[in-house]
Specification:
Layout (H helix, E strand, L loop, with lengths): L5 E7 L6 H18 L7 E8 L5 H11 L3 E6 L5 H10 L5 E5 L10 H11 L3 E5 L10 H17 L11 E5 H7 L10 H11 L4 E5 L13 H20 L17 E6 L5 H11 L8 E6 L11 E3 L7 H11 L4 E5 L3 E3 L3 H6 L7 E5 L2 E2 L6 H11 L1 H4 L12 E3 L6 E5 H6 L11 H12 L3 E4 L5 E3 L8 H18 L1 H4 L2 H15 L10 H25 L4 H23 L5 H15 L1
Parallel strand pairs: 1-2, 1-4, 2-3, 5-7, 8-9, 8-11, 9-10, 13-17, 14-18
Antiparallel strand pairs: 4-6, 5-6, 11-16, 12-18, 13-16, 15-17
């Protein structure tokens, strides 16, 4: 089969009503281009990513693909945003030249040819379709003004050689996307700005070509909330590019690496979340003969799917189960996964690409809240995601910038098997918190590195805010307070003490109202609380505007609960789980 010369990448979300006709139109256009553009146009492909649509989009794309061999269909299990959809499509493409084209065809595919001709004629690396450079704009005056204001704001912070970054038609040489795609963080509307800024920053040449947009009506994505978030995204891009120099430190991954990986899932008993976790683990975009799934329940559980091994462990703590799983594993990489978490389709391929660095012992990634979680589960997730709640550790629950870490939870952590064994596996058998000592040994005592990769993503089901969240949170706080004494290298940090200081402030603050001499302190108390709730609302609104008020309440109560149990752990001589474990060891030894 002739290797594609051109790839057209089309992300699609709930486009079932017209996606099949649109694909046919794009295919016909590309066939015409084969005969008119150049003699060296041996083939093309159209790669469509169904980005978690809730209508019949997937079925329509698959029908079109079955009729035409030049159409590829790739599916996301959930909506992950335009940038991730395009990146997935790019990984499944082969073309030397790559188009981005919105699947709603607000821009006629006839404009593919002018962009291709310009790139060939001028020798540039990318061509952006532009509404602002000599095009006829068929959309409302309001949108036109907003577009110009947005462009002015972007160019004030990020001087670019192109005026219009947001148009849904672009053309690239493949090497440009190979250089910049992996380190992009913006997933939705402002990803075009990040792409242009990174390409220009890395020395690629960008040009524009006029296109016409056939606007469908309404304001589209131009809501106040989206404008607000796009503004924050652009400020974040400026910070990462100009101040933090984050993009300059990026080391490209080798995503073609396929080490054998063992996925280890410790679980008490069979449950629907476990079945979902295993299902998604088996549906990885990774060679099927290069990984296995090991499930460790108390009692035997039946799985009919090939690739799953069940190792009954008896009623052991999770740390012991995971040690047993590693002992049974055939993989050189061990990927730990909780039974209430399930991986994205590219989870294994993304984490595997990191292990080309020999000093890198582990890879962790975000555990984001699934779309299917209930309202109160999402509120519980929003509490953890809040910067005011998790501070500098919110990257564990959100997609954030790549970084080195010294402590990471095993709900989404992969380690080299030989390093795990060198570290002695899980030693303390705390629960939760058994991963803290392991990471401490790996990073501080053995001097290996663990990296947080935002592309190594799992969906982690949250606890209902009032039916499990606080029980989980207080256990985290109890152990973290205890670990301040036991593992000060990773736990004796100011961030962990802040909820306790806040709790003391909330409890002692009302005493300032009892004496006129303390009146200035009472005013300070009121001001600080007011600022606290304003900040809490701000961080909640950025992420989940519909959950904002409930999130503020959850953050406040969580701070109080965490603060109290952190102090309990701090002043405890021994934790109950540790006592139970050592009692069990003595009993086993007596037998």
């Amino acid at each position: 089969m002739t290797k594609p010369f051109v790839s057209v990448l089309m992300p699609a979300y709930n486009e079932g009503a017209h996606i099949r006709a649109n694909l046919e139109k794009v295919r016909a256009t590309l066939e015409d281009m084969q005969s008119t553009c150049c003699k060296d146009f041996p083939g093309f492909e159209i790669v469509v990513v169904n980005d978690g649509s809730t209508d019949n989009t997937q079925k329509e794309i698959e029908t079109a693909a079955a009729r035409c061999g030049t159409i590829k269909c790739v599916n996301h299990s959930g909506n992950r945003g335009k940038c991730v959809a395009l990146r997935t499509a790019f990984q499944h493409s082969e073309g030397k030249f790559v188009f981005f084209l919105d699947s709603d065809l607000e821009i006629d595919p006839a404009f593919l040819e002018p962009l291709f001709q310009k790139l060939q004629r001028d020798g540039c690396d990318a061509v952006w379709g532009s509404k602002q450079k000599g095009s006829k704009e068929h959309y409302p005056f309001f949108r036109r003004i907003a577009s110009k204001v947005f462009s002015a704001f972007v160019h004030l912070l990020l001087p670019l050689p192109i005026k219009d970054t947001q148009t849904g038609l672009k053309l690239f040489r493949r090497e440009l996307l190979e250089r910049v795609f992996d380190c992009m963080l913006v997933r939705r509307y402002a990803f075009d700005v990040e792409l242009a800024a990174l390409a220009y920053h890395n020395g690629f040449s960008l040009e524009e070509e006029p296109v016409t947009v056939n606007f469908r009506g309404g304001r589209g994505s131009l809501s106040m909330y989206n404008v607000f978030n796009m503004t924050l995204d652009i400020l974040a891009i400026f910070y990462r590019l100009k101040i933090l120099a984050y993009y300059d430190s990026w080391v490209p991954k080798r995503n073609k690496e396929t080490p054998f990986i063992s996925i280890v899932i410790a679980v008490k008993a069979d449950n629907p979340y476990l079945r979902q976790s295993v299902k998604h683990a088996l549906a990885q975009d990774y060679p099927k003969d290069r990984y296995e799934v090991i499930v460790l329940p108390d009692e035997p559980v039946e799985f009919s799917e090939p690739g799953v091994r069940v190792v009954p462990s008896g009623p052991e703590l999770p740390a012991i189960k995971r040690n047993m799983g590693v002992e049974a594993a055939r993989g050189e990489i061990i990927a730990f996964l909780d039974d209430d978490a399930y991986p994205r389709e590219n989870w294994l391929s993304e984490l595997a690409g990191n292990f080309t660095d020999e000093r890198l012992a582990g890879v962790g990634g975000p555990g984001t809240t699934p779309q299917e979680d209930s309202f109160w589960q999402k509120v519980g997730g929003a509490v953890y995601e809040s910067k005011l709640m998790s501070g500098g550790y919110s990257y564990r629950y959100l997609v954030d910038r790549r970084r080195m870490v010294d402590d990471y939870p095993t709900c989404n952590l992969a380690l080299r098997k030989d390093v795990f064994q060198e570290a002695g596996g899980f030693q303390t058998n705390f629960w939760p918190g058994e991963d803290t000592e392991l990471c401490l040994t790996v990073t501080k005592k053995l001097n290996y590195s663990i990296v947080y990769d935002p592309l190594v993503e799992v969906c982690h089901h949250r606890r209902h805010l009032f039916k499990g969240h606080f029980r989980q949170l207080t256990q985290y706080a109890l152990h973290r307070g205890y670990f301040v004494k036991k593992f000060p290298e990773t736990s004796r940090k100011l961030a962990y003490f802040m909820p306790s200081l806040f709790l003391l402030g909330v409890l002692l603050g009302p005493l300032t109202f009892l004496s006129p001499a303390l009146r200035p302190l009472s005013i300070t108390y009121i001001v600080v609380l007011a600022l606290y709730f304003l900040l809490s609302f701000f961080f909640a609104f950025i992420l989940h505007p519909k959950l904002s008020l409930f999130t503020v309440l959850g953050v406040f109560l969580s701070h109080l609960a965490y603060g109290w149990y952190f102090l309990v752990g701090l002043f405890s001589r021994r934790l109950r789980k540790e006592e139970e474990y050592h009692a069990k060891l003595r009993k086993d030894h007596e037998k």
